[in-house]
Fold each of these.
Amino acid sequence: MAVCIAVIAKENYPLYIRSLPTQNELKFHYTVHTSLDVVEEKISAAGKSLGDQRELYLGLLYPTEDYKVYGYVTNSKVKFVIVVDSSNTSLRDNEIRSMFRKLHNSFTDVMCNPFHNPGDTIQSKAFDGIVSGMMVQTG
Amino acid sequence: MADEAPFQFLHNEVIQYIYKSAETDNGRNIATLENMGYRVGQGLIERLTKDTARFKDELDVMKFVCKDFWTCVFKKQIDNLRTNHQGIYVLQDNKFRLLSQLSAGKQYLEHAPKYLAFSCGLVRGALSNLGVKSIVTAEVSIMPACKFQIMIQKM
């Protein structure tokens, strides 16, 4: 289960950040911000290396002492970042991939909503619901 | 995707409505239609590229627009894509779906731009969401064939 989920726009500002309320939220904002550099590096490096440069899922971006950060980029250059607890070793790669798929599907629905302007922060309740389902249940 | 007939009828009615509700016939109507197409293009491309692999370069993006995007919206592919490799692309469609009901020659040629504005916006919105800023214009010499000219803007 994720500890923090963020959606970042093409221009690198956050469209949506949600983290566990008990934790220090600013720390997560910083973590997500620094992970953007790694994402950029992966996108530009992928053009030169062979193999899965065509994949949208970026995999583990970098591990910190407490957390692991995973990234995913859509074709419209919107980035999804998921931060999970390092102590939670039971999460497999496939589960992270399916979490990103669900996020992407939900994000597509938000984009197609005529009341949502691209570039605004995401206010959709359905999107909130999907994200809550993925975050850790506290208490 | 949805049936094309309802979309064509809706498209025609939207154009009629905009022109009827505007008091003066200035360029604003075309701009309104184009902006509508822009927003729709953005959402549509998000849905269509959900499962495709990442695009390698600009030409890849244009080919996607000509094949998958056009097939999805207009049920056929672009007939001819030309480029000067310096940011200008010309897409030729010999039987544009939204014009084929209007006429099959030179009749009503002066009304054609109204019917192309939405599609120009559609292409511009799709490209902009894929990271390509552009200006899209369309020209018709003989209905229902039309040419869309895309000028890529280097940022």
Amino acid sequence: MISPQGSPPGSSSQSPRSPSAPLFLSVTVTDPVKLGNGVQAYISYRVITKTNLPEYQGPEKIVIRRYSDFVWLHDRLAEKYKGIFIPPLPEKSAVEKFRFSAEFIEMRRQALDIFINRIASHPQLKQSEDLRTFLQEDEETMERARSQETGIFKKKPTDLMQIFKDVQSMVSDVVLGKEKPVEESNPEYEKLKHYIFELEDHLAEAQKQAYRLVKRHRELGQSLADFGKAIKLLGACEGDSLGKVFSDLGSKSELLSIKLQKEAHNLLMNFEEPLKDYVRAVQSIKATMTDRANAFRQQCELAETTKLKEINLDKLMLMRSEKAVEAEIEYKELKAESEEATRRFETIVKLMSEEMMRFQEQKTADLGLAFHEFARGQAKLANEIADAWRSLVPKLDACSPSMCS
Amino acid sequence: MMGAENHYGLEPPPPREEMETLALVDDDHPSTDPHPLAAVPATLHGGDPLLFPPPSPHSPSSSSPSPSPSSSFLDPPAYADVVFSPFDSQNGTSSGSNSPRCAAAAASEYARITVSDPQKEQETSGSLVPGGGTYVTYLITTKIRTPASGGGGPTEFRVRRRFRDVVTLADRLAESYRGFFIPPRPDKSVVESQVMQKHEFVEQRRSAIEKYLRRLAAHPVIGKSDELRVFLRTPGKLPLSASTDVASRMLDGAVRLPKQLFGEGGGGYAGPQDVVQPAKGGRDLLRIFKELKQSVANDWGGAKPAVVEEDKEFLERKEKVQDLEQQLSTASQQAEALVKAQQDIGETLGELGLAFIKLAKFETEEATYDSQRIRAADIKCLATAAVKASRFYRESNAQTVKHLDTLHEYLGLMLSVHSAFSDRSSALLTVQTLLSDLSSLHARAEKLEAASSKIFGGDKSRIRKLEDLKETIRITEDAKSCAIRGYERIKENNKTELERLDRERRDDFVAMLRGFVVNQVGYAEKIANVWAKEAEETSRYAKESN
């Protein structure tokens, strides 16, 4: 749970209405429960919101949400807050068999918890109305809102117009032979694009190795269990005292096997997942870059069209044509749209640079924590291994030649 | 060369502890030279080229005498400081250094046997293929253990032998030392020689011969044998009678068979000196048939043979040995799997480290924010720790392989045990066969006597037959006594060898487990140190997120 102002959650001992109380919003995603039957079965989560913000109801509110609700929220934010790196969601589908495994459910729950808290602590996103809907509305309202967002009817009428205009301009580009998409010629931004794309490759590789490491831990655990069993059986062939040592060694081996499985799980949740999350975050940035490219293109096209209209208008005015009046109205409309498009683009640029700084800082902290957990887990495991084996040495020493019978 | 060859075919790394290269932790050169890390995913074979003696100035605690962080000075000593030198094996024993096996090896007259310098030589005579027929010879160097008084005589012998000579040695030993657990000789493995590269095959064979000779030398009885001495010391042609292949033996036997059947000489009964050898593999076809008939009679016939395996103690022990063999087989398999799993985890850690090094380098080059630079440094720290830990895993594994190799060695020994037990049973069969021969001979003699006593004055031909029969009986009695003596001797050898097996096995297993455990502890402590430091360096992130 991340408290946006850095104040600990649960300071609801102070009256929520008192003006001097620091504002906080903290969310927990918990209690996954399987609902439904057969193909339509799904997991529902309990989302608990604790806040003293006036826009929210009461000190605490609990709602039930499922994965597609989170997807809805994500998509709404992605639409409305162009330029901001929307926190990434965990992957959509998984192999059917795996979908309800305890591990997968726990991984998803953790990822959703992180997702919602990142939104709740983001300066702009936390003010979103959709967030409030998500955190407060009852399940029926939520379901209605979710089912409305399917298909192209997602888009509002003005967006629909925009789509047609985009298609139009695409066609005119082709007709006029301007097939090459228009791109910014900003060297710094070029560098950033290149950085983001290459970063994704490096991170994917690191995440792949991390996942492999998890598997290796499991394999080692398995072989320790098998080895322990075999040693025990071998010890049964020996005399009493030596046989006992064999048996002890076998038991220790089996014990360590369990510890290795535990560490494998720990690695998965606290090291591999953060790396995967990092990859997703980079992909979210790529989505924003696409938005930026689109906004840029729109801005350019509208600017051009406006210019053409201006030229045309001047011509008509010179000719003192009756069409001049109409043309002037059209021109003014178009100019407003062009300015709007320019504003949209510039907003994105400004937001992106703020977001990049935030992203870098956040990732340093996230990765630092992941490394810490990784190192701690590995150190703990190694110490457990050392302790387990060490306990056998005195027993083996007692069995030195000519002492055991 | 440490000489500690083992089943897994891995070379032990040089006995050094420290492995940080300055380049990895040196923050003055942020763009790490990728060269040292290019060897990170290298396999165990060929040792680790990245082992440098001096510890990095940034990590003094890796060589400090302090125990693992979680323990106080009152705890047992840290095994991290034990210098792990690969066990310096003498004459083939690869188990703990304190075992009496080492003492036995020390008692052997052969201080060291080395097999080296394979050379190709041409078959000079009797080659069916003109211009073909090459074979490989190996130089065998033997150092003799001389008394301190330093008497005369050479202390080192060098001979050249080919693999066929090794087979000959093995065969002669098998004949002379029936009932003993003779170390199994290297395989002839015809198929492998075609599949493998020639030099790989030769190297494998060289190593196998060396191991075999060392084991022979370490055996309390066989180590003193004439056959071995002659093999190791006599230059030039090996003065042991060559084993011939079974086919030509059968051929020879077939030639003798008619003589045996139609009564020439002793009438086809085995002479006393021959019975000491097993029938199978010999030239005496008739004897082979007889013993076969006897063994069938034993198995299917109603009557119990006159002498049976009655030694209950032996039967119990035999069962135990069979049980042991089964468990050894499983344990040996699981040990291999364990070694592989440990190797894999070390390898993956190394690759993870490598991936992070690349990431760190990339972030450093492209850094535009301070947070990026900090992160790049963090990543490099973690990568360094991962690579260090990876090396420790691999080193630990190289040692583990050697310790657990004892399992595989004992599994190999089971072959010798089987061999010794079958020496016993074939000797028993010979005795049984002779006994039933004798009883049928006596029966015939009785009949003849009874028949000839009815004719007054005697029947000349019958009397002569009777005399011949009595002669045969006498010879067979001698053979029977010989066979029984041989059988008893083999039984005695079995007994002493079983006792030796129990004694040595116990010691070897204790040494194996202790070596394994101590090694694991030592390296686990080292690895724990590496990660504890890394956890310390990243601890500020933990506090922040709370």
